[in-house]
Design a protein that fits this description.
This protein is mainly α and about 140 residues long. Helix content is about 70%, strand content about 0%. It contains seven helices and no strands. It has helices at about 5-20, 25-40, 45-50, 60-80, 85-100, 105-115, 125-135. Helix 1 packs antiparallel against helix 2. The chain is globular and about 40 Å long.
Length: about 140
């Protein structure tokens, strides 16, 4: 179970990911708002994080880092609908490394992403990739 500071950090990281190259699009904002509800973060706190990011807090749990990486994959795909955006892939790769995920797993996810509809890697496939590397 992750605490409030970790939840705020996750959300802040996702907002930074969405803002990386420009302003947050409406579709990204709505996705992030949905994640904030899932994390039980109030709308006020969410709106505050948009303009006031907090420091990154490294998650101890490997499974929580995988879930967060999956959220970032989904966010990148929302952000780049129809685009083959190599900047987004590089950004995602760097965020994954910063979270302490193995570069082999990240690379495999990014490679396999191309073979799925809308580039959305199913959660069970993503988990299997990271499990293989983790063991």
């Amino acid at each position: 179970m992750i605490n409030r500071v970790e939840k705020l950090s996750l959300l802040s990281e996702m907002i930074a990911f969405a803002k990386y190259d420009k302003d947050i699009k409406n579709i990204e904002y709505n996705f992030l708002l949905g994640v904030s509800k899932q994390l039980e973060i109030s709308r006020e706190d969410f709106d505050y994080l948009i303009d006031n990011p907090i420091n990154y807090f490294h998650l101890k749990s490997h499974s929580e880092r995988i879930v967060q990486f999956h959220r970032l994959v989904l966010l990148m795909n929302i952000e780049n609908q129809g685009d083959n955006n190599s900047k987004g892939v590089i950004k995602l790769y760097n965020f994954g490394l910063r979270m302490g995920l193995s570069h082999e797993s990240i690379t495999k996810v990014l490679y396999l992403m191309e073979s799925f509809p809308n580039k959305i890697v199913p959660p069970d496939v993503l988990i299997d990739i990271f499990k293989t590397q983790y063991n």
